[in-house]
Amino acid sequence: MTEPVVIAARRTPIGRDGGGLRDYTVDELAAPVLRSVIDDASLDRAGSGVDGVDDVVLGNVFGPGGNPARVAALRAGLGIGVPGVTVDRQCASGLAAITQAAAAVRAGEGEAYLAGGVESASTAPQRAWPTDPPTPYSRAPFAPAELGDPDMGPAADLVAAEAGISRRRQDAFAARSHARAVAARGEGRLDRELVPVGGLTADERPRSGFTVERLARFRPAFTDAGTATAANSCGVNDGAAAVLVVSERVRARLGVPGLRLVASATRAGDPARLGLGAVPAMREVLRRGVPDVVEFNEAFAGQALACLDAAGIDEETASPDGGAIALGHPWGASGAVLVVRLFSRLVCQGLGSTGLAALSAGGGIGVATMWTVVR
User: Fold this and answer.
1) pLDDT reading at 50 higher than 80
2) N or C: which terminus of the chain carries fewer CB neighbours within 10 A?
3) Catalytic annotation present for 178
């Protein structure tokens, strides 16, 4: 069995829906990131033993269909012989794409895979059921209605209430996420991982001056008695992220550091409490040890806190440079953004040796991964 290792990782800045990336389709967002990752890795250097990329695996949720991974690979100039496959595991799509690429490396199918995710809420096509007249809809079903298929916001309110997560604690968590992201952006800690697209060179969403007192003024966004608000929840965003997954043999020949995947788990639970899907997956990979860095996707503060508490993770250790509440949540890309963040912090900055990346997704699914630095 061949161990999979990430040796390069990049992402676009995360743009607001209708913001700085509004004119870019999913393939146009993903292509420069794929190209940058390949350039970083210098696979063609002497002695690598790799002729090129074996496949491109990208997560995507909202279309336009037509296998964006293949289109992005062609747009990136990877050659007509490089295939592509697009993965939809809802918000976990980007991380699922990376674990699928890692599984292919372990199986010996190839030795170099580009994997990640992309989402363009700004250019996603409108959808409608074929009624007369057509009935527009914003999302597909996550589960059969009789099993419970709530929208994510009301489900987050339910999860937070059942877990006893107070509104003030959620606001404090969100304020910390913004403060950390603003500090990281200002100190240049995110620069190395970013691939500018158009005129956008930095994440658009992080806000300075978000205090608990200021966040307390926001009204519930989803249910009358709920605790999730527009300020302690993620935004709707555009962005792309990708990593290069290679075999340990290739990494050693190249002589570069990387992140080795030591454990991954995909699990599922109650679709009516879809925000808790990550908990059984995290518990599984945490059997391998305690991570130095945790990157958990902050879709909603209450939901994130409920997951971290249930998995026994100190909330202060999660998202040290801010998470999705501050940076944004480009659905199909967000899981890959977590791995890019781990790579930046652990490999590039040397701030620890092990990391956890995890998130919940529609339908009550969760994906978690554990990584360790190799040099």
Assistant:
1) no
2) N
3) no
